[in-house]
Amino acid sequence: MEILHGKSLTPGTARGCIHIFAENSAEHGEEKGQSAEAELALFRHAVGEAEEQIRMLAVQAEATGGREAAQILEMTALIYQDEEFVKAVETQILRSGKTASCAVQNVCKDFASLLEVNASDLYMAARAEDIRSAGRELMEVLSGYMKSADGECQERKDSVRESPGILWGETISSAEILRWNPKGLAGIVTERGNACSHAAIIAGTLGIPMISGIPVDSSRNGCPAEIRGEEGVLILNPENADQILNSTKIQKEAVVSQPTAFDSISRDINIADEWKGKPAILANISSAADARRALASAAEGVGLFRSEALYLGSDHAPSEAEQYQVYAEIAGLMKNRPVVIRTMDLGADKQPGWLPVRQEENPALGVRGIRLSLRHPELFRTQLCALLRASCEGDIRIMLPMITSSSEILRARKFLADAEEELKQRQMPYRMPPLGIMIETPSAALLSDRLAPKVDFFSIGTNDLMQYTAAKDRQNPDVWEEEAGTDASQQSDEEDAVLELIRMTICHAHDCQIPVGICGEMAGDPRFVEKFLHMGVDSLSMAPYRIAGGRKIRAEYYTKFMEAGGKM
Questions:
Q1: Positive or negative CA dihedral for 143, 145, 147, 151?
Q2: Could you tell me the sign of the dihedral formed by the alpha carbons of 419, 420, 421, 423, in that order?
Q3: Considering the entire predicted model, what is its pTM?
Q4: Lowest-confidence range among 170-184, 281-295, 383-397, 537-551?
Q5: First-to-final CA distance of the chain
Q6: DSSP labels for 68-119?
Q7: Rounded to an integer, what distance in angstroms lies between the CA atom of residue 33 and that of residue 101?
Q8: Is a pLDDT exceeding 80 seen at residue 485?
């Protein structure tokens, strides 16, 4: 038995035989094409087919993993419509005489590298991942063609994927996960990756345990193995190796039974009435479909609704009516449960095509979050009017992103007052909801005693707080490589620093008698949930697939608390 330590991306346990996943090697063929016209026709035909395949996978993703999963695939398909991308590939074919395969490979590599050079937050790196994923899909299609003498495309029959058990590769795209899943995918191990990557999000929604940070060893192909997602551990040749080798049932049950069994455990634990719902276990969502999935996972409300999804998924600025409809629908679905809606967190790489912006050298430290909202008064006021109106339909709470100073809060409150006055003049029904802020920079945490009296609640965004505290891009494996290979159950120095900032923020919030929640990746990480409970946090908001585990840990913690006579 051999134990390899990596990083936990999604929870759960999986057992099966290792299948080494190698990216399509067909792109490493001839650089020069025999006919530019033929290569161009090949590329255009491949783009159409790849786009259609991605859209079909998006339909599958929505049926199995919700709207958020489908949107991830749809973003990949949009890359094929990007004029700059298409022009760059066609230029290499026509001017440099490259084959379609070589041109796609070069352009995807250049585009992704450019984004990563300028990336300082998770979203820009995710965009680079999308481009690589789109490139892999094109290479998959191109490798399935052979060119006839007259340049017309002929499709070659694709090879049938066998049931793999546990996939192990350098990187695995969200599209590949969806292709393998119906064939018995039990777990995923990657060399590179992050819990905020699109592949991890897809794996999580499908209940597939996933870990990263373990270099690929092709000699292990076919080896029986076990993944322990919460611990970030891959066990090769475990004690039950013979059973794994002789059974395909285990591979499939690891996928199907894990989330439902976990959920039933958390639902069935009985704890004292006074502890139920303390802290609230809430969901992070991006759409009404996600809200339904959160309810099915027994979420006790919404701790983060990413309203920027309405802006990024449209070719125009969403109107007040369009936004009201979405906010009201989610509030109605949640009934009397809290719904925390973050105002548009745009900027950096999250730039709608219809919104003109100035290029910045360091967009993660530039005009983003509340800074962008304050610079676009009409957009901000429209959103606030929609939120005030929708607040009549449920327990909506407004949250401002990337706050770093008191002055930003005061300016935002002025916008809120202006929106209220406008609705009064229009004689529209509205309700003034609580106003909170995200604590996601070290300065905001250090100044939380000054910020607390000016708002109604805090929500700690641990993703950016970790990034800015450690001065490390969490999607860049090169700056985190010293963490790879260590025991994933142990905390890093950077995590210790963030925990201290969180502890300080919670104390300052409670001193001012306002609630404080946590809505980043750490909120659903089993290593930290009990620590946050001990700190007295009021809510934990996490991806829907982590809710069952969060409720289970909460119940067990307070059971131990009561057994210890109220002392821990």
A1: negative
A2: positive
A3: 0.61
A4: 170-184
A5: 37
A6: HHHHHHHHHHHHTT-HHHHHHHHHHHHHH-B-HHHHHHHHHHHHHHHHHHH-
A7: 10
A8: no
